[in-house]
Specification:
CATH topology of the largest domain: Immunoglobulin-like
Order of helices and strands: EHEEEEEEEEEEHEHEHEHEH
CATH class of the largest domain: Mainly Beta
Radius of gyration: 19 Å
Number of helices: 6
Structural class: alpha/beta
Mean pLDDT: 82
Distance between the termini: 54 Å
Length: 230
Amino acid sequence: MKISKQSSVLIVAAIMLFCTASQKEANSQNVDGVLDQGVRIIQFFSSSPKDTIKVYRGDALEMQFLKRLFPVCTVSISGASCKENDSIKYIRFTAVDTGNVQVYSKDNQLITTLKVIEYKTAGKAKIKNLSGKEAAEVLKDTSIFILDVRTPAEYQEGRIPGAVLIPIYELADRVNELDAYKNKPLFVYCRSGNRSIVAIQILTKQGFKNLLHLNRGIKSWINEDLPIEK
């Protein structure tokens, strides 16, 4: 599919929530793009991109469009932002829900479809998803390391008692600081459960085998009126 240099581009997100994906899809886990400082980079440097681009729920996405092919940047994806330089434009948003995000040109030609799937580990890695109440019970074991992957400002506003901050955009470079916990329980959370999914991707790739994940992030902790440290 060719898009002329003169075509304006309108990125339209039509998010259609799916039923559970087939087992084959769930196990393939072959996602596109490259993780860089906690952001998955997807490049559109060809006028004929792949029909389907697979990403994980929770991924912070940066779609990079070559301006000579996609000269105008307009988005209608909730929470999306757009920036550009002389040659590339950047559309950034978080893949909050599983399902499809369809990307169209202004003349309603389908550019590609982003397929958003749940992250599943392979091999020996184990992930346990916890509610706020379940997390409080588990964290009675004070030997469990608590990792906060939010921003420093969010951390200062309030955190789970005992949590250590490594922002998601620093985690890949600082993951060696956590090596002592590769074979021990490590609890991960963020604000709403999206950045922490990206953190789990990074940690499992580095050999961490026992990860505890706070579903819906610190918001689920606060909703249970559990203690917050400032």
